Amino acid sequence: MAKRGFWVAAWGVWAYLGVGLYRELPRELRAPVCKLAFAKSEEPVGFLHGEDVVVSKVQKEDPYDPRFTLWNARTGLKIAERRGIAKAISWQGGLSVSLRHGVLIGVRPDGTTTELQILDLRTGAWRPIEARPLSILDVHATRPWAAGVASKDGDSDDPRGLVVFDLRTGATIARWPGPAPSNEHIDAIDAACFRDDDVDELLILIKRIASGDVTKRFETWTIGGATTVTPLPLKNPYVELGSRIAANGSVVLTRYYATTDLDPFVAIVDSRTGKRILSSDEFPPLLHTGRSRWIPGESQLSASGCSFLTIDQGLWNVVDRRRLWKADKRFEDVYKVDGSNDAFLVSEFWKRLLDVNWLPFEGQTWAVRDFDTGAVRYRAARQHPLLNHFSSDGRLGVTFRGDVYAFPLAPNWPLLFVCQLLLALPLVLIGVVLRHRMRRTATGAARGALAEATS
């Protein structure tokens, strides 16, 4: 019974390792579906939502005259080319192009107007924005809405409020006049972002200057209704909004770079209450910069708000302050987080780790890891597309070189078979040796019994 239990356990471990190898072994990218004829300095922006159409951007000599090209990702044929914008407007967390809605916001390059307008990437048509916003703050993740800084009663010399408008028509959806004026202080909108897919709310970061002192607070505007002030003001006013709002209401605040008087700073705050959940002041691993005093603008908070990817490439659980994963700086580099903050991409340089110049494979793999756990979802043997360079159904991905690949990747069955065979070999040899010994013992016993019977 004990021997049988041993063998069951041994083969159970072998099967468990097989499951791990199925996940961990690098998968081969099959032959490209097509190759897009990118020009020099041209790079992909991503896919139009719901379509197998790649949008690429090439920067010409004029930095204010980018060109956008639409490609058929199945055939590699060029669909159309759009002249960019005369003035690029950046909003929180991205470019002035929204592939979800297939539009780009900026000033028309033909010089007919200096106001912001909407370029439909599919048709090439420009349409005006009714509210004439001065700048763009955020674009809704799913609805065709954008939020911008609006002028007071159309007076561009006194920007105070916010306006939400429809990206399809340019019509105004709702307008918020901004904080009430006061002779004792000045309130200004510092940043804003839409809350989530299910709630029509805009989170606004407001800066107040009074008697030389600066404070900041959150206000939540229910689109078309009133605003709600977060109970606790922010203790540190010299911070910027460093992330979108997570599902649990958390948001990241950062001080992007330090001065002689101010150290770098990052904090995770509950936007509904103003309560600080975690900050680098009380938990230094949240901001381990080494000798650098600069903080990247893109802070990495998972979509759920449960984990945070630090700038020194460590993944921490926000609630219990437990490190989930840490990049091995000898060979791992976090390359890119996807737009939804659901996963992140890690490049792995095995030649650098093993300190060898020759390996029976390219020597670099790409691992897609889960943002909440750090676990490997799968690993690719060759250059993997950035996670925001995938079609909305996840079936196509495009690399910087313009190669379009089909996904999901199939496991490398031959390599998995060889690895499992090697793992099983010791068990098979032990079994053969034990069986041989048992046969020798049985043969010896039979011979002894026969000798006793004939004597």
Detailed description of the structure:
- The protein is α+β, with helices and mostly antiparallel strands and 455 residues long.
- Helix content is 15%, strand content 38%.
- It contains 3 helices and 33 strands.
- A 5-stranded mixed beta sheet has the order 1-31-30-29-28.
- It is elongated, with a radius of gyration of 29 Å.
- The chain starts with a helix and ends with a helix.
Which helices and strands occur, and which strands form pairs?
Blueprint: H1 2-24, E1 26-27, E2 34-35, E3 42-47, E4 53-59, E5 66-72, E6 78-83, E7 87-88, E8 97-98, E9 103-107, E10 116-120, E11 126-128, E12 135-139, E13 145-152, E14 155-166, E15 172-176, E16 186-194, E17 201-210, E18 213-222, E19 227-229, E20 240-241, E21 250-255, E22 265-270, E23 276-279, E24 300-301, E25 307-309, E26 314-317, E27 322-326, E28 332-337, E29 343-349, H2 350-354, E30 364-370, E31 376-380, E32 396-398, E33 403-406, H3 413-454
Helix pairs in contact: 1-3
